[in-house]
């Protein structure tokens, strides 16, 4: 029995040693995995101001009359005058779009408001689509000349305000993403330094969405582009 116990003892010792080494390796692996879980998440901001390169200008006016034929003649004359004004300002015919006027018969419902002087009202709409943004801004100021001719063009209504568009987002995207990423890294490096750590590789990155808005209500032709990128870095001792 003693002869058989020695090999069994040696085998048992080797097994115990192996288990001990395995446990130590597993512990080291767990510690390394735990260290890899140390991260910092930061946000990087990039902003830029640009000028709009496209504009859509709805031009509207209203004409009233008690005679339908006379109303159509007057509407046509004033519409032609507005188109001529735009061409004189420097816009091409291809940039100007016309729609049929909307005619309202105020007696069509059978009830006549005694305060309404004219039976028919025509709402006329034109649209200017152009990349001549600065010229459009100048023309809006010159529009007062049409008012002097009896064409009351709407200017302050929400539906009559020009819409300004910036179409070159793809051209500025790469530089702005780089700027936002660099900004985020600077924040992460500051955090790592303050926590006595070293900044590691990026674990996760989210570019975020580009947002384009007017710089302010007085200058809608100047746009502000903004992007916020979110990055998660590993922290090393």
Automatic annotation (TrEMBL):
Highest taxon above the source species: Bacteria
GO biological process: DNA damage response
InterPro entries documented for this protein: 26kDa_periplasmic_antigen, SIMPL/DUF541, UCP029033
One Pfam family linked to the record: SIMPL
PANTHER family for the chain: SLR1258 PROTEIN (PTHR34387)
Entry protein name: SIMPL domain-containing protein
